[in-house]
Amino acid sequence: MENLHDKRKVYEKSQLIESEIKQNPFEQFRDWFLDASASPAVSEANAMAVSTVEEDGCPRTRMVLLKEYTYEGFIFYTNYGSRKGKAIEHSHKACLSFFWPNLERQIIIKADLEKIAENLSDGYFHSRPKGSQLGAVVSPQSQVIPNKEFLEEKLKELEKEYQDTEVPRPSNWGGYIAKPYEIEFWQGRPNRLHDRIIYELEDLDWKISRLAP
């Protein structure tokens, strides 16, 4: 057993003030994401936790890479038949979370998810390295497999099959767009008086509030 009571740090690198934030949360996200991308201390600024709720009512969280963000939402790709995909079919709501500890910042996004157009999934799929394309074809994501060699042998077979031809995108693989209705920006502050600014979508406008830490 280990007592972790004294494992804490002082947050003091920045602050979040209403007079300085953007009125649109997508613009605020862009500013923070660019800061994270430019920081040598952040290895994957686009790594985010995606939490979904499965049929047993229990949330499940995994790390996913954000591949695009627009004024409409946040896009990532996966196997539609995976546990993640099945959970999204069960409940179209999800929570996305970015945590950049070296910047002492966190963003929490509550959103409705829907599949993106097939041609957009096609375009991204064929922009990936061929090995990644084949990996998406080979893997029955989240299903039980007999052993590691099972996938390796299938990959070798497909490498030969598609050696000189284009790999077709599997119909069960593609993108989701998370359309947010709530976005919270968290900035660490001294004495645990952290700054928390929340944007909530009301009709077509974003309401901005400050939350107690």
Could you walk me through the main structural features you see in this protein, from its secondary elements to its overall organization?
The protein is of the alpha+beta class. Helices cover 25% and strands 33% of the residues. It has 5 helices and 9 strands, in the order αββββαββαααβββ. Strands 1, 2, 3, 4, 5, 6, 7, 8 and 9 form a 9-stranded antiparallel sheet that branches. A hairpin with a 5-residue loop joins strand 1 (47-53) and strand 2 (59-65). Helix 4 crosses helix 5 (148-161). The longest helix is centred in the N-terminal third of the chain and has 14 residues, at 25-38. It is globular. The chain starts with 24 loop residues before the first helix and ends with a strand. The mean pLDDT is 95.
Strand and helix layout:
Layout: H1 25-38, E1 47-53, E2 59-65, E3 68-69, E4 74-79, H2 83-90, E5 93-100, E6 105-115, H3 118-125, H4 130-138, H5 148-161, E7 173-187, E8 195-202, E9 205-211
Helix pairs in contact: 4-5
Taking pLDDT < 50 over at least 5 consecutive residues as the criterion, the unreliable ranges are: none
What is the straight-line distance between the termini?
29 Å
Number of helices: 5
Order of helices and strands: HEEEEHEEHHHEEE
Estimated share of beta-strand residues: 25-35%
What tags apply to this protein structure?
5 helices, globular
Brief synopsis:
With about 210 residues, the protein is α+β, with helices and mostly antiparallel strands. It is built from five helices and nine strands, in the order H-E-E-E-E-H-E-E-H-H-H-E-E-E.
